[in-house]
Amino acid sequence: MKKLLTFLTAAAIGAATQAATVGWSIGKTDASYKGDAYQIFVIGQNGVTSADAVKLLLDAGTDVSDKAFGTGVLTTANGGVTVNAGSSGKTLGEGTYTAFFVVYDSATPTAGTSKYVILDNVGSETVAATTATFSFKGKDQSAVVADSSNWSSFGPVPEPTTAALLALGLAAFGLKRKVA
Questions:
Q1: What are phi and psi of 62, to 5 degrees?
Q2: What is the DSSP secondary-structure string of 87-148?
Q3: Model pTM?
Q4: Cα 84 to Cα 9, 23, 25, 141, distances in angstroms
Q5: Which tens digits make up the pLDDT trace of 31-44?
Q6: Neighbour-count burial for 18-57, b at 16+ CB within 10 Å, e otherwise
Q7: For a surface tag, which of 25, 81, 117, 157 has the fewest beta carbons within 10 Å of its beta carbon?
Q8: What is the pLDDT averaged over residues 121-145?
């Protein structure tokens, strides 16, 4: 039993020493987004397979915070953020990783009322056995967030005609007279 515990401890220490601490940054979005929420996702981590898969979940109004590699708010005056590798508390082992950001238009994203944009031009990073720290860098994203066609609704937004037809149907039902 002691040998097994010793082996497991050595394996855990070995795995931990082969991991690089991870940071991330978004160069800037727009000053009006300072204080709004963001999430960073790493493909292959927490069940994330692609930016499109996360987009489908967001479009359906699903909370994806359990899939995010990291979260926070945009803190810089120009709507960016920098999280240093040493303070993130996140690590990744050897391999090549691709990350992307989701930026929301509010500090507390709410399905049905908030909008989001995916910033997926962050690129890939390769972690080698000798890599101690690295950062995913989303450079100047202001052109992406400025284009309204890049923004999507977080959750389904009902058509106004659907509500109007429902109200009209209820009104007609209420006006119907009972014929004897």
A1: -80, 135
A2: HH--EE-SEEEEEEEEEESSSS--TTT-EEEEE----EEEE-TT--EEEEEEEE-HHHHH-G
A3: 0.78
A4: 29, 5, 8, 19
A5: 999 999 999 999 99
A6: eebbbbbbbbbbbeebbebbbbbbbbebeebeebeebbee
A7: 157
A8: 91
- Those residues whose C-beta lies under 8 Å from the C-beta of residue 37, and which sit 6 or more positions away, are 71, 72, 73, 74, 103, 104, 106, 107, 108, 109
Place of tokens 């992406």: 144
Q: Are 108 and 45 in contact (CB under 8 A)?
A: no
31 contacts: CB under 8 Å, gap ≥ 6? 77, 78, 79
Q: How far apart are CA 180 and CA 175, in angstroms?
A: 16
Instruction: Say which amino acid occupies 2.
Output: K
DSSP helix/strand/coil, 59: helix
